[in-house]
Predict the structure.
Amino acid sequence: MVRGVMISLGVFALVMLVLSFFTLKNVFELVNNSTAYLRIKDCTIKGIKLLFKARINVRSALDYTIELAQLKITDTSGDYIDSWSGEVKNKEDFLISFS
């Protein structure tokens, strides 16, 4: 009796594990198919600062929340120039400042 219950629990655990893997695979495929675009609306120069008014547009099949953005700026040859990070709210404009 106990051995039968243990085998049943083992089979149940194996089935749940396989289902979990398929669920994770589907979620990763949805995330992989998501895209994010940085839309620059305005650019101004104030002294030695370069200011951008921007918005992040996301195309995704998943619900999402943007709380923090990190940008790495490189030149055309891929050499690092500067980076920026800041709080960003969903579907709202924000300022990026480089000096």
